[in-house]
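Give me the fold.
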Amino acid sequence: MDGLIIDDNRQTADALKQMLDVLDVPSRVAYGSSPAISVLGTFVPRFVCLDINMPGVDGTEVLAFLRREPRLMKIPVIVITSDDQPETRHRVMKGGANAMLIKPATIDALELALKKAGVIP
C-alpha cells in the first residue's frame, strides 16, 4: 500500500518521493490540499507526508480532516514544513500528527520519522 505526499510545491513533493523511493517505501503525490482531498475520497494511504503552508485549505485543516474521518483517522501523519515555530509544532502534534520535520528534510530524518510512526521496521 502506498503512502501519500501532500505538498503544493512540486519540487519539494518530488524530492520527498525520491527519498521514499530510495527507502523502498512506495508513495503517490498530491500537489496541494484540494487534489489530496479528492484522492482521499477513494484511496486510503499507508501514511501521509503533509505540508502545512499551502494556499486554500492548509495542512492543519487536512490533518483535522484525516483525524475526524473514520476510515483515515489511524493513518500515520508526518508533517514536513518550513514553519519551525514552537506554536506550529504544538498545534500539529496536538492535532494528531505522529511527527514533524523541518524542511528541507533529510533522508535520515524521514526514515527515523517513518520508523517512529510504525510505517517501516
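The mean pLDDT is 96.
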